[in-house]
Design a protein that fits this description.
two-stranded antiparallel ribbon
C-alpha cells in the first residue's frame, strides 16, 4: 500500500532491524503483547510465532482489514482504533507494548501510555532519534526537558540502537532509534496533574531561574534544599516530585 502522510506512515522493512527488535523484546510463549501501528505487518508476522497470539492496534482501516484477512484470529486480533483513544486497561496486566510509533504524534502517545504504567511490564518503541535522546536525557544537559521528567518519574529507559532511514519505506527525513521503557516497580505517591502543571510551567520558562519560573516561596526552596538560582533543567525528576509534594501539602 502507498503510505499515507496523514497517518505519518513509514513502513519498516529491513529484516536485520526487525530481527534486532524481536531479539530486544525476547518474546516468550504466553506473553501478552500489543503492537501499536502494525502497518503492513512486518513485525506482526514473527511475533505470533513466538508467543502464540498478538493484539495489534491500527488506525488505518485498509491496513487493518488486510492484516485481518492474512492472519487467523487465533494468531492475531486487529483492533481498528486511534491508539490515543484506546483503553489499555481492557488488556491483561503485565502487558508488553511494542511498535513503530508515528513520529508526528509520538509524544502524545507516550503520555497516554504512561497512565497505564502500573499494568505494563515493558515497552519497546521505534521513535525519532531526537525524541529518544530527550526521553533518556540526564538533568543539566541540553536534551533534558518536560518529556524527560514526565517519563523518568514513571519508567527506567534505555536507548537500544539507532536505525538508518533506509530501513523504512518511504525513508523518513529524520534519524530513528529504538528505546526500551520499564515501569519503576514502586511508583511514588504524587498528584500527576500537579506534577504535570509544575513541569510544564518550569520548562516553558527554562531560561529563567527557578525563583522566577515556579510559584514557590523562599521558605519552600530552603526546606526542600533547592537553590532557587538554578534553572529548571538543573533539577532531577526526583526534585520535581519533591516540589510536587510540597505544593500539594501547603
Amino acid at each position: 500500500m502507498k503510505p499515507r502522510k496523514r497517518f505519518g506512515q513509514h513502513f519498516l522493512h529491513d529484516p536485520g532491524v526487525l530481527q534486532r527488535i524481536v531479539e530486544a523484546l525476547d518474546p516468550a510463549p504466553g506473553d501478552a503483547i500489543v503492537e501499536i501501528g502494525p502497518g503492513e505487518g512486518a513485525l506482526s508476522r514473527p511475533l505470533p510465532e513466538r508467543i502464540g497470539h498478538l493484539t495489534a492496534i491500527e488506525i488505518d482501516r485498509d491496513l487493518a482489514a488486510g492484516l485481518a484477512l492474512e492472519f487467523a484470529s487465533q494468531r492475531l486480533t486487529v483492533v481498528t482504533a486511534d491508539v490515543l483513544d484506546f483503553d489499555f486497561s481492557v488488556l491483561p496486566p503485565g502487558l508488553r507494548v511494542v511498535g513503530n510509533l508515528p513520529y508526528n504524534i509520538s509524544t502524545p502517545i507516550l503520555f497516554h501510555l504512561a497512565r497505564y504504567a502500573g499494568r505494563v511490564r515493558d515497552m519497546h518503541f521505534m521513535l525519532q532519534r531526537e525524541v529518544v535522546q530527550r526521553m533518556v536525557a540526564q538533568h543539566s544537559t541540553p536534551d533534558y526537558g518536560r518529556l524527560s521528567v514526565m517519563l523518568q518519574t514513571r519508567f527506567k529507559m534505555h536507548k537500544l540502537f539507532n536505525v538508518a532511514a533506509g530501513a523504512f519505506r518511504p525513508p523518513p527525513k529524520v534519524a530513528s532509534a529504538v528505546v526500551r521503557l520499564v515501569p519503576i516497580a514502586e511508583q511514588p505517591d504524587w498528584d500527576e496533574a500537579v506534577l504535570g502543571k509544575i513541569v510544564r510551567q518550569a520548562f516553558s520558562a527554562r531560561r529563567k531561574t527557578l525563583r522566577n519560573a515556579l510559584p514557590l516561596a523562599p521558605r519552600d526552596y530552603e526546606e526542600l534544599g533547592i537553590d532557587p538560582g538554578l534553572r529548571p533543567e538543573n533539577l532531577s525528576p526526583t526534585d520535581y516530585l519533591r516540589i510536587t509534594k510540597r505544593v500539594c501539602v501547603r
